[in-house]
Amino acid sequence: MSHSLGNEVSHLRGIDALRAVAAMLVVFYHMVLLPNMQIPVYLNVVKHHFGVGVPLFYALSGFVLAYGYLDKLNERSQVLKFYLRRFFRIAPLFYSMLIVWLVASRIKWGTFPGSFHDLVLNASLLFGLVPGKHESIVWAGWSIGVEVLFYLLFPVVAVLARSLRSGVLALALAILVSSSFFTVASSLDIGSYAYMNIITHLPNFLCGVLAFLIWRHLGFRRSAWQGSILLVLSLLGMLAVIYVPSAYRVLMLASGVRLDLYIWGLLFIGLILSLCMFPNRIIVNQFSIGMGRDSFSLYLWHPLIIVMLVDFYAWIGGRLGGGVLNFLACALVTVCAIRLVSYYSFRLIETPGMKLGKRLTNAQ
After folding, report:
1. Confidence class for position 74, pLDDT limits 50, 70, 90
2. DSSP string spanning 253-306?
3. Residues with Cβ < 8 Å from 275, sequence gap 6 or more?
4. Residues 268, 237: contact at Cβ < 8 Å?
5. Which of 7, 26, 175, 224 is exposed most, by the fewest CB atoms within 10 A?
6. What is the DSSP annotation of 164-225?
7. Residue 177, C-beta contacts closer than 8 angstroms, at least 6 positions apart
8. Could you report the per-residue pLDDT of 195-238, keeping only the tens digit for each?
9. pLDDT confidence of 345, banded at 50, 70, 90?
10. Of 86, 33, 25, nearest to 61 (Cα)?
């Protein structure tokens, strides 16, 4: 069974919904960490595990690129069109946020972030290659720097990992290289770059590619009961990683290796496949699909909105205390504000950028 895409990735509702999940995990993670919000101990899972939303984004990116382009990059012209479309998918919003953060930093802190050279590096979108500059002028932008490098790498992946067997081998090799790199990088004086780089996260991206290869091998199967079982197993695996002490101790046996990151990647394969087989309405609904569609805007706008809401969080905390009601109230305000901004950001910035990229590639 094949799928017809033309030049566009066909609509997968489950993937859109998972984008929303990934985005909200990161939003709640930063909502707690940026203002140092006091939360009950049983909500510490937000601090310790919700950052996994970024690796989930990478896995989803790998799946979508494989689904849309794995068999379509056979000629130089096709590769150039791919790069052009990816540029106009990322650049318009990122450049807009770059301007927003320059203005916001000047207003709030009285200075511009970084130097002229930092600005040029951010404009090149290649800051993910430079330790110390990788976190970007745009807050949370480090992941965009890594994503751009995945785009640059993908035509090579498309050549080397076209079959299920080659995809498995590529993932195994990536885990070996990633773990070795992380071990060495952690011993160097390069700060967060040991984690925030393309090599460390390459297995997550390839897990998404492998999820597509598995689904294709299954004939793009649709099955409510198989999808449901796979979803339950994936969620149970995630809960075990988070809440079972013995599972956590096993993951920590390999000192200096992000074994937990690779386990999450494998669980993401199951999660992606489950919703491809059966996009159940609990996760896949009109609200999550809409948020998933706008997730790039949601992701890039959320740190600024959280910073703007810090005093309001304090006001809410003063009235509700530091319990679960305080967390839920702050989460509700944050989601409403970010959802509103991302809705218009997608339509006013992202959509025109994507249309321009499409026109330019169609004109070639």
Report:
1. confident
2. SSTT--HHHHHHHHHHHHHHHHHHH---TTTSSHHHHHHHHTHHHHHHHHHHHH
3. 13, 14, 15, 17, 18, 227, 231, 283, 284
4. no
5. 224
6. HHHHHHHHHHHHHHHHHHHHHHHTSS-GGGGTSSHHHHHHHHHHHHHHHHHHHHTTS---HH
7. 199, 202
8. 999 999 999 999 999 999 999 999 999 999 999 999 999 999 99
9. very high
10. 86
CB 123 within 8 A of CB 98: yes
Dihedral over alpha carbons 15, 30, 94, 20 (to 10 degrees): 20
pTM: 0.94
* Residue extents of the structural domains in the chain: 13-362
Residues whose CB is less than 8 angstroms from the CB of residue 35 and which lie 6 or more positions away in sequence, other chains included = 306, 310, 313, 314
Convert the pLDDT of each residue in 290-341 to its tens digit. Answer: 999 999 999 999 999 999 999 999 999 999 988 899 999 999 999 999 999 9
Place of tokens 């492998």: 210
